[in-house]
């Protein structure tokens, strides 16, 4: 079984935040793949299904971002899931809006959700990095990630989530490089191939 984890904060207050794009992407995958209804499990919302013949559990931790690892570790222990089979979708300040990159392990770049998962589970898990851009000043980061996407950004946000849903089979079959390439081509075809086309300027 694979575990697809979307990072974000629970509740309607945070639903449209930049920090919640991981929630949005995993929810889009679950809807597209017609997974079971969401229900409360593992200190979060979880649902199950199959993608290209592979069993997948989707999890949206409801522990708040800084404690995401508690929920992930509970699901990991229950299903005895290997670290390499935990795929984490998260917002990435160091990538321009509408850029998607995949990496395994490495640094957490100050992302508290990743830091918590690493502390509870280990570090060498695949990360689906969903670019949201940087406000340009470190002092502005907190307010930036906890503010909603601007109206002008919604097009690329929907495209990123649609692409994740479209190409989820590549993730389920561990073709991570192919997923990244297909996402790049898809977003480029949608008109989001450069930061200038990716929506509103950060901030």
TrEMBL record:
Enzyme class name: hydrolase
Main location: cytoplasm
Active site residues according to the UniProt entry: 19 (proton acceptor)
Keywords, alphabetical: Cytoplasm, Hydrolase, RNA-binding, tRNA-binding
A GO cellular component entry from the record: cytoplasm
UniProt-annotated binding residues for tRNA: 14, 64, 66, 112
GO biological process: protein quality control for misfolded or incompletely synthesized proteins; rescue of stalled ribosome
Stored Gene3D superfamilies: Peptidyl-tRNA hydrolase (3.40.50.1470)
InterPro entries xrefs: Pept_tRNA_hydro, Pept_tRNA_hydro_CS, Pept_tRNA_hydro_sf
Residues flagged as site, Discriminates between blocked and unblocked aminoacyl-tRNA: 9
Subcellular location: Cytoplasm
GO molecular function list: peptidyl-tRNA hydrolase activity; tRNA binding
Reactions the enzyme catalyzes: an N-acyl-L-alpha-aminoacyl-tRNA + H2O = an N-acyl-L-amino acid + a tRNA + H(+)
Pfam families the UniProt entry points to: Pept_tRNA_hydro
Keyword Ribonucleoprotein among record annotations: no
PANTHER family assigned to the protein according to its UniProt record, in alphabetical order: PEPTIDYL-TRNA HYDROLASE (PTHR17224:SF1)
Function in brief: Hydrolyzes ribosome-free peptidyl-tRNAs (with 1 or more amino acids incorporated), which drop off the ribosome during protein synthesis, or as a result of ribosome stalling.
Complexes and interactors: Monomer.
Sequence similarity: Belongs to the PTH family.
UniProt-recorded name of the protein: Peptidyl-tRNA hydrolase
Species this chain originates from: Ancylobacter novellus (strain ATCC 8093 / DSM 506 / JCM 20403 / CCM 1077 / IAM 12100 / NBRC 12443 / NCIMB 10456)
């Amino acid at each position: 079984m694979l575990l697809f984890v979307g990072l974000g904060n629970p509740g309607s207050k945070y639903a449209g935040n930049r920090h919640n794009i991981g929630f949005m992407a995993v929810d889009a995958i679950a809807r597209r793949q017609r997974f079971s209804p969401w229900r409360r499990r593992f200190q979060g919302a979880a649902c199950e299904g199959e993608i290209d013949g592979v069993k997948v559990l989707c999890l949206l931790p409801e522990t708040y971002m800084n404690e995401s690892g508690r929920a992930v570790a509970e699901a990991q222990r229950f299903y005895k899931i290997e670290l390499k089979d935990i795929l984490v979708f998260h917002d990435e300040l160091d990538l321009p809006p509408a850029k998607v990159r995949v990496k395994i392990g490495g640094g957490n770049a100050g992302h508290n959700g990743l830091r918590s998962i690493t502390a509870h589970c280990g570090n060498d898990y695949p990360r689906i990095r969903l670019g949201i851009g940087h406000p340009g000043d470190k002092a502005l980061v907190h307010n930036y990630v906890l503010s909603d996407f601007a109206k002008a950004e919604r097009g690329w946000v929907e495209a990123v989530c649609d692409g994740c849903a479209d190409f989820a089979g590549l993730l389920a079959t561990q073709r991570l490089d192919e997923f990244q390439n297909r996402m790049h081509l898809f977003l480029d075809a949608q008109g989001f191939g450069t930061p200038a086309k990716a929506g509103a300027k950060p901030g």
